User: Fold this.
Amino acid sequence: MISRLSAITLNTFREAVRDRVLYNLIIFALLLVASAPLFSQISIAIERLVLVNLGLSSISLFGVIIAVFIGIGLVSKEIEKKTLYTILSRPVRRWEFVVGKYIGLMVTLVVNAALMTLGFYIALLLTERKLTGGDSRLLVAIYFIILEFLIVTAITLLFSSFSTPIFSAIFAFAVFVIGTFGEDLRNFAAVAQGPTKWVTTGAAYLLPNFSALNVISQVAHDQPISGNLILFNTVYALLYSAAVIAAAVLIFEHRNLK
Amino acid sequence: MKHKRIVTVVSALMLLALLAGSVLTRHMIEAARGRQATLEEVLYVPSGKVLKRMSLGYSGLLADIYWTRTVQYFGSRLHEHATRYDLLAPLLEITTDLDPHLIVAYQAGSIFLSQGGMGAGQPDKAVALLEKGIRENPEYWRLYFTLGFVHFIDRKDYKAAQEAFDRGSRVPGTLPWMKVMAAQMAERRSDLSTAIILWKGIYDGQPDGPARTNALQHLQSLQADASMEDLERRIEAYRERNGVLPKDWTDLVRDGLLRGIPVDAFGEPFKLMPDGTTQVHDPSHYLYLGEFRSEKKPSP
Assistant:
């Protein structure tokens, strides 16, 4: 089972790395990160702030775009090229295919995030002339961004397990946008009454919460991130993405591929 | 087939268990971050003008989101009986920068800001918000009314209140009593009837929500005060006629000074005290009793 999973994971990673969309996005993201020192020169005393906000937002936004645009093709491309039938005719279970694809895309995103983080820290070094202990706190924000990718990739895979690529992209982006307002939805549910309260509470818990994973503003202002939040966010992202993958497996297992 | 069934059952069970786990973890995240975490982040981008540029043209939608956040913030602070509303003014500032024509944000927001006790107690900031609203929406007469109201009720600045009502009375389509209010402010009348008219105007001009509820509570208290003043005048009339104070309300009914036992807005009888003064049956129903009532000395 492990060898089958790792084979699918490796293939997915290779395929994603060869994808031209990926390179375009990475170059664009790196350019944006690299341009941060230029942006900071037109403002006063907020060079580091602009660089951190712009750099981390770019890593997050472009990572999400990559997750969605590559994620939507994970299943549909295999069906379109008829390669899925070849894979499933071998002793590969459908759930192994879904989980392998997920891990493969996650590896790709982690490698991308690592590259962009490297570019971001180089830009930081160029602007500040030195890196301080406080700059290591930025890694917490990047870790949370990777947790965000865990959930976004799972959601994209869920939609691509039963829908067309275009609709999968639309649904995934819609869920991402709603998720970024997750705490607003929760607050709204807290003050609502009657059936509205039940519906909004249900939606608030069913949809992902990306609000707690976005600490870019806090780290940009050197605010500490509690250890509890790091722990709970990690557990939450793992549980939620695993739940979504379970749903994707459930759907894909029953999908008629003929 | 057997394998497919196993995968289905296992993944369905995992889905339920993992979702339940994620809900529990989310509660822990909320506890770790605090419920107002998203709102506190407004302090990081406190400029509505910057947010407007960042919204890429969707500033109306963003204004709606910020207004919802404002209401949620105010409601939750009120519920917690908080004494500080530090984020209220910045939230209103951002909301109205994003959508300068969002009248409700000026109307209800200024009441949230100005009221002491059940609000932020920052009438000067409420005035600044309303002046901004008038600059952006000069044709909306209710904003002048609310401005006059804040000057009169919370700032006790009769001249500024008169000016606000006077400016509002010149707006096409305004109600005629704006002129009357301006005249009353010129006479520096700080009595119950003026306060009732003003709070009634606020009550009528507010959408359902905390500001309207607050206006209703003020109105109930003012009307109870007005009823008690009227009852005390009748008690005084009884004393002048009979030389003694009435023992209970039936004495006044018997003398033709009352038609029946007087009751308040909640259907509860007013109390007649031995010194000839009156009290409401349950003071907990009235949060603002005595705000505008004239001092009454007990009868000898």
